[in-house]
């Protein structure tokens, strides 16, 4: 638990960023003092509900998202589509038990016109019917649950992040070619972990890869990975592919190294395994870990360099994929609100369909017909650089 508290503490210390007192009004979970912004209607101020984890294993991710949304607002004079914005923030917590009532409050009590955020796939799945039935738009800025933009697609749900199955898929065939032997699959036991493994496994096996074993560890409860690491060693696997994020990713990667597996058994995963504050906390233990993701601070474009510099200036640390996904949600709203005076849910979703290309730090992307981000994925490798570690971009994945 020591590592978790270190990560959480370092993130909490960053909750008073330089730009925080700009145009953005953050009102944590309180709807009573929010003034008179309208929940729908036209013109005037628009109220945006921001639903992110402020507690639990994913709290640092929530902070990154909050910062990303805020940076966009501060860069645009506190306005989206020419309209002043009031942000009401609520705590998603660790899953649907906390996340669903918090979202309902943002809509019914706080009268948000749109909700942005959601880290956990299980929360997103639990919110689908509520947003669809109340005809309010939800812009998912992380949670990758496949069904949300697949079998359970909703007119009211749009996603600026990824579908779980798509993040590991491009890595599967690459690992099958790169590793001479079988691969062990391990992930947090909930929708995201299972879907990130399934996406990888499909392309990995199609390319001739052999699975040495598969294990799902209790989500949010596993701090000691030793029994699972013993299982991996006993399986004779030549490499491991895994999904963990936040505090669990820190523990897993550190213990993988301490257990002596890292030198002989290459570690692969979706990029969340080594992202942002997680990578800082892992330190040298993460060097050599290879991941697939749609973002890295190391993407060598003027757009990304400027973004990283602006973010560093505002928050004194590097941005993350979570930051970018929320920053881009603000960009989507900016474009959509510029095209509609009416912030009624049915009008807003029509405007989302017309936002076109988003010029993001991750590269250009647009919504596909399922409301998911159509984007590139990169193969990244953790390398030491200038006394720290970074996710170096090796190449684009097909
Ligand atoms: C998810 O639950 O969908 C999820 C959570 C954390 C991540 C990625 C996906 O880093």
Automatic annotation (TrEMBL):
Transmembrane segments: none annotated. Residues 1-28 form the signal peptide. It comes from the Bacteria. It comes from Actinomadura rudentiformis. Keywords: Signal. Belongs to the leucine-binding protein family. This is ABC transporter substrate-binding protein. Residues 45-386 form the Leucine-binding protein domain. Coiled coil: none annotated.
